[in-house]
Design brief:
Keywords: Membrane, Transmembrane, Transmembrane helix. It holds the Pfam family N_methyl. This is Prepilin-type N-terminal cleavage/methylation domain-containing protein. With 283 residues, the chain is of the alpha+beta class. Among the domains are: 129 residues, no CATH class; 33 residues, no CATH class. The strands form two sheets. The chain has a five-stranded antiparallel β-sheet, with helices on one face. Strands 6, 7, 8 and 9 form a four-stranded antiparallel β-sheet that branches. The protein is rod-shaped, with a radius of gyration of 34 Å. 24% of the residues are buried.
């Protein structure tokens, strides 16, 4: 019997090169998928961090702006301040201004931050420094909050300001839009028979000219149940302002990361100022 030995042969150079090429394509594809996945996770983390920082800034602005015009938590002892709120004057009322080359990027306002009793505002005065507040955007992308001030000036430079942005966040745009809606309401104190006593406070209600008046019944400055209250008929047009103004501030905030300008986001918020601006119904 004869034995036949078969000669073993390896792969050719062409087969080797094709195999290497296929392997490199597979490896390159895997690396590409891994890199894309890592980049996507990084972008999501950066966007999440930016969103969190922006929400924190927005919450600070919303919560403080809502307090604009607050005058007292003790209305019974400060009725005069409620009827003539010192934080609604031309130098203390909420307003929107341009700052540092921007447009409508600063808002200033005032409120009785320490709940002083009675609330008194005299500008400029050291007692007022802790009652004037605001927000502004600098040209370098830093959002600042005013801690104290002496006047609500149009250039938003007065007072002490504190940065509330993180170092790695750049605010590219900030816009405040203030709107006031007139609302007609009943007056807060009436003397419908013109006898010198508020309705319900006459000691002799049937007399045309009572000699004395009592207080604490209806003449407490409030439109109580059972009291005949005057109705404000002003429509808000000049020269007859409305009795009550409901104010809202729309805030638009746009920011990005300083080390990655591609990560940018814009958020908006509508703020209802809780303290409506009251004007006396009867001049």
């Amino acid at each position: 019997m004869s034995i036949t030995y078969k000669q073993q042969t390896g792969i050719t150079l062409i087969e080797l090169m094709i195999g290497l090429l296929v392997g490199m394509i597979v490896v390159a594809g895997g690396i590409s998928v891994f890199t894309t996945s890592i980049k996507g996770q990084t972008d999501n983390q950066q966007l999440s961090r930016l969103n969190q920082d922006m929400r924190a800034m927005m919450d600070i602005m919303v919560r403080d702006i809502r307090r604009a015009g607050f005058v007292t938590s003790n209305p019974d002892a400060n009725l005069a301040s409620l009827q003539n709120n010192p934080f609604f004057s031309a130098t203390t009322d909420i307003a929107v201004w341009d700052y540092d080359g921007g447009s409508d990027n600063c808002t200033v306002y005032a409120y009785n931050s320490d709940n002083s009793n009675p609330p008194v505002v005299s500008l400029p005065s050291p007692s007022t420094q802790g009652k004037l507040f605001g927000f502004r955007l600098n040209s370098d992308g830093i959002l600042s909050m005013r801690k104290s001030g002496n006047a609500n000036n149009v250039d938003c430079t007065d007072g002490s300001w504190e940065t509330i942005t993180e170092p790695d966040v750049e605010v590219t745009d900030l816009t405040f839009t203030l709107t006031s809606t007139p609302l007609n309401v009943t007056s807060m104190a009436t003397d419908s028979d013109n006898d010198g006593c508020y309705d319900g406070d006459e000691t002799t209600p049937n007399a045309s000219n009572p000699t004395t008046c009592v207080t604490g019944t209806y003449g407490n400055g409030l439109c109580d149940t059972g009291e005949a209250c005057n109705t404000c008929t002003r429509d808000g047009t000049a020269p007859d302002p409305a009795c009550l103004y409901v104010r809202n501030v729309a805030i638009s905030l746009t920011a990005r990361l300083r080390d990655d300008n591609t990560v940018t986001q814009t958020i908006t918020q509508q703020v209802r100022v809780r303290n409506d601006k009251f004007l006396s119904a009867i001049p």
